[in-house]
Amino acid sequence: MSILLILSKIMVNFMPESEIKISAVILAKDEEETVGRVVENALPHADEVLVVDGHSRDRTREEAESAGARVVSDNGKGKGDGYRTGISQAQGRVVVLLDADGSHDPADIPRLAAPILEDKLDMVIASRWRGGSDDVHPNLTHFIRDLGGNILALAISYRFKTEVTDCLNGFRAIRRDAALSLGLEADDFDIEHEMVMKALKRGLRLGEVASHEYARAGGESKLPTFTKAHKFFIRLFREWF
After folding, report:
1. Where does 59-199 show beta strands of DSSP type E?
2. What would you measure as the largest C-alpha separation in the chain, in angstroms?
3. pLDDT band, residue 75 (cuts 50/70/90)
4. How far apart are alpha carbons 81 and 78 in whole angstroms?
5. HSE-CB of 222 using CA atoms within 13 angstroms
6. To 5 degrees, how large is the angle CA 131–CA 133–CA 139?
7. Domains in the chain, start-ordered, CATH in brackets?
8. What is the pTM assigned to this prediction?
9. In three state form, how does the secondary structure of 170-236 look?
């Protein structure tokens, strides 16, 4: 571990909780190839870097700790469980959630957090539709995934009379106290639009910033599109009505 990373960990440990503005919460499961690099790239942009390990069977925890992150385990129920664990364990005023696969650019963390720290917004989503994506492939899986995401974004925008282009992007920032008040329930990937809809129902100020999505740098996607697609629409109807 470099001297810079050691000093960063010491500073967080001794920093008063009220002074920790930004917590980067990285969701990881079996991402030993990429998690260390994501942690290292996040450290300069956050006051705290926390990795939530979804009971990895590889060296994800060790790689994250070696890179300078504090690592906690979720309850093994899925990504939604990881979100709740990360939000509850984070110490910052603003929680920035991102994935450990290298698809999100940690350099964008300050851009997501700034509108919240300036009290202009309560939640900010990094939009791939505004910033572009390298993870585009001409196959049925990606077609269904993109089509489903667009349908959900259209339905949410219509229901709440706002404009949301990327409700399923896991790269997002939210005021920690607001996130804790939402009563999030989803254990799976449907946590992402559950959070958006509950935030809008509570009257939270929501916005988006353009952020480029990169192709996964290693490992495999944890989202089986065809076996879990129904969960997204069940969640939509539950929150709609």
Report:
1. 70-73, 94-99, 123-127, 172-175
2. 53
3. very high
4. 5
5. 17
6. 150
7. 3-240 (3.90.550.10)
8. 0.86
9. CCEEEEHHHHHHCCCCCCCCCHHHHHHHHHHHCCCCEEEEECCECCCCCCCCCCCHHHHHHHHHHHH
